[in-house]
Amino acid sequence: MKTHHDHYDVLVAGGGQAGLIAAIVAAEKGARVCVLEGAPRTHRGGNTRHTRNLRPMHLGPLSVLSGTYDEEEYWEDLLRVTKGKTNEKLARMTLRKSTEAVDWLESRGVQFQPPLGGTLHLGRTNAFFMGGGKQLLNVLYRHAEGLGVEIHYDAMVTGIDIEDGAFKGLNVGEHRVTATAFVAAAGGFEANIEWLKEAWGDVAENFLIRGTPYNRGTLLRMMLDAGVQQIGEPDQCHAVAIDGRAPKFDGGICTRVDCVSLGVVVNENAERFYDEGEDFWPKRYAIWGRLVADQPNQVAHVIIDQKAKGGFMPPVFPAVVADTIPELAEKVGIDPVQLEKTITEYNAAAQPGSFDHTELDGLHTEGLAVNKTNWARTIDQPPYSAYSLRPGITFTYLGVEVSEKAQVQMASGKECPNIFAAGEIMAGNVLGQGYLAGIGMTIGNVFGRIAGSEAADYALNR
Length: 462
Prior knowledge:
By secondary structure, the protein is an alpha/beta fold. It has 2 domains: about 5-235 and about 395-460, 3-Layer(bba) Sandwich (FAD/NAD(P)-binding domain), CATH 3.50.50; about 240-390, Flavocytochrome C3, Chain A, domain 1 (Alpha-Beta Complex), CATH 3.90.700.10. Helix content is about 25%, strand content about 20%. It is built from 11 helices and 19 strands. Strands 1, 2, 6, 7, 8, 9, 18 and 19 form an 8-stranded mixed beta sheet that branches. Strands 10, 12, 13, 14, 15 and 16 form a 6-stranded mixed beta sheet that branches. A 3-stranded antiparallel beta sheet has the order 3-5-4. Helix 1 (about 15-30) packs parallel to helix 5. It starts with 6 loop residues before the first strand and ends with a helix. Its cofactor is FAD. It comes from Thalassospira profundimaris. GO terms for molecular function: oxidoreductase activity.
C-alpha cells in the first residue's frame, strides 16, 4: 500500500461508521484526511456492515420515530443493563448528543425506514437504516470520497509511534504515514480467539463471531502497549445467543434467535437456567450469549410451540420441528425424558393471566427453581420448534479511555494532545457491561463526530 501523501492533517484508522463520520467531519472543516481500512473493499466497514439501527434520544417525534424518548428514560435503560458500570458524565453526554444523529445522517444521504415489529419493541426508541448497515456505509463512503477523503483498503496498521502521549506516525507494512492528528476507530478484538481465551479460557474456542473477522484488536493492543489507559474488562462483550449452525465468523445479525422471550431455554441437560421473560428483548438479548457460554459445552436450545409463530423475526436457519416434545428432544440431541419433565413442570407452574408481548405482562410461573416473570404461556400447542444456540460475540468492551473531547488518555494520567478515539475501541467508557439495542451505533456516531471535529481543530490550528 502507498498513500498519496506521506503526511495528513487527520489520519483515521478504521473504516466503520465511527471512522467514516470522523473523517467526514474533519474533511468538512477543511482538513486533508486519509482513512486506513484494514479489510478489503468487499468487507469494508467492520461490524457496521451487520447493523440495522441506532438509538437516539428525542423529545417528540423524530423522522421515523414516534413519541418521546427523553434523557432520564434513556439513562435509566442504560443504567439497568450496565448495572452502573458506565461513566455517567460521558454516557449522559452521549445521550444528549444522540439527538443530532439522525438529522446528521439524513443530511448526508442516509435513509431510514419504519421500525420492525415482533419481539423488538423499538418503534419509539430506534431508527432503522433503510437497507441496513451496508446502505449506511455505502452512503458514508460516497460522501467521504466526494469531500476528497483518501481511502485505502487492506491497510491494516502494523505499528504505531506514540511518544510522550503524542502521535507521531504509523506503519502499514513497510509504508510509514504521519499526521498532525490521529483518530483510532479500528474496533475491538472479538475476532482474535487467542485474546478471547486469555479472558474466557478454552471455552472461547466454542464461540461464534457474529461480526467481521478483521477486528483482531491489533491497533488496540499496540496502543495499550504504548501506555494508553485501558478501559473496561477483557471478558465483557456484546454476546448474543445465536443459531448454532452459524459460521465461525461474519454470520451477522440474521443468525440471532429472537424467540427466547416467547418460549423456554434449556441446556444440554434439558434443564432451564435463566428467566426468559426478565425484560423486553432489546434490553436482554445481549446477556444470552454469556448465559449460554456458562452452560455445558456452551450449547443451549430454545423451545417454542405453535402459539409463538409469527411473533418474532425468524433467523436465517429454519427451526427443528416435531409433533411431540420427546421427538423434538431426540432431534436436537438431548434427553427426551428430562425435556418432557422440564416442559411439564413449566406448564404446571404457569399462572393464569393475559398474554401481551407489547408489555411486561406479569404472566409468570410459580414454584420453579428458575421462574419466568413475563410472557409465561404454556408450551402445549404442537408442532413444537427448537433452535440450538451458541454464544455469538459481536464486539468487545475492552478499549481505551477517552475524555468528553474523545481525547485518548495515557495510563500516566497525561492526556494525548492529538490522539482521539471513536466507536468500539472506546465504547467501554459507556458500556461497562450489558447492552441496549442500537447504543453501539449511537456511541460510534456521537464520538465519531466529536473525534473528527476535535482532530480537525487541532490539526488546522497548529
